[in-house]
Specification:
- The protein is globular, with a radius of gyration of 17 Å.
- It has ten helices and ten strands.
- Helix content is about 35%, strand content about 25%.
- The strands form two sheets. Strands 6-7-8-3-9-10 form a six-stranded mixed β-sheet, with helices on both faces.
- It has a single domain, classed as Rossmann fold.
Length: about 230
């Protein structure tokens, strides 16, 4: 579904990614792991056309070179940045409505689905998003992206700063995505969550992929965990 080959990315003159290659297959959860500064978020931004890059990125066989972020989103890729961007002066319901493409009639997801997964959003649907807690804003950002009915959703640090109960909800939510045929590229530092729900794990270090394999293989690889994951 998503193919990334020999990807190099830059911030101005700073060379951040060094020949990164990986793929995401239909309906699977792939965890992209690594310490802060390893290049995980930059890889996500490159896929979405938000940073300068060289190499090859293809979505369902279509080359994404030169495409703008909104064009990439319309092809069926969803992106949830770690910054939890919401429209602060619009209500929860209005934020969700902005995530829809077209009428939303043929979408796999509805308002009822969002509110069923996160009842707290239903309780606050007429509240301005700017006054929500951090956890509530994270729920809202995830759900707003889903309202666009993506086939792949890239989620950057969805559990950062969240209470343990909300972290469990997010993990359950990601599993439901897979059950509905949505692939997930999960950028995460919490190994327990990432390893429990992912089909494959990628580990990044210094802008390169240093490990690719199953969660079980990563659990057995003490060198990779110590060198690139454990603080």
């Amino acid at each position: 579904m998503l193919s990334v080959e020999k990807l190099h990315a830059y911030y101005g003159k700073s060379h951040v990614l060094h020949g990164v290659s990986f793929e995401v297959r239909p309906g699977e959860i792939v965890a992209l792991l690594g310490r802060n500064g390893s290049g995980r978020s930059t890889a996500a931004k490159a896929i979405m056309g938000l940073v300068d890059w060289q190499g090859f990125i293809a979505w369902k066989g279509q080359n994404l070179a030169g495409k703008k972020a909104y064009e990439i989103a319309h092809l069926g890729l969803g992106y949830v940045p770690e910054s939890r961007d919401v429209f602060p002066h619009l209500t929860v319901q209005q934020n969700l409505l902005l995530g829809q493409k077209g009428s939303g009639r043929n979408s796999r997801w509805s308002f009822d689905d969002m509110y069923a997964m996160f009842p707290r959003l239903k309780e606050r649907r007429d509240v301005e998003a700017g006054v929500l807690s951090g956890g509530e804003q994270q729920m809202l950002t995830l759900c707003r992206t889903l309202m666009g009915d993506p086939d792949l959703i890239i989620i950057d640090e969805p559990t950062e700063g969240l209470a343990p109960k909300i972290v469990e909800l997010v993990a359950e939510y990601l599993t439901r995505l897979k059950q509905r045929g949505v692939a997930v590229l999960l950028i995460e530092q919490k190994l327990t969550i990432a390893m429990s729900i992912s089909d494959r794990a990628l580990v990044m270090g210094h802008g390169s992929i240093v490990f690719q394999g199953t969660p079980d293989a990563l659990r057995c690889n003490g060198h990779v965990r110590k060198e690139w994951l454990e603080v």
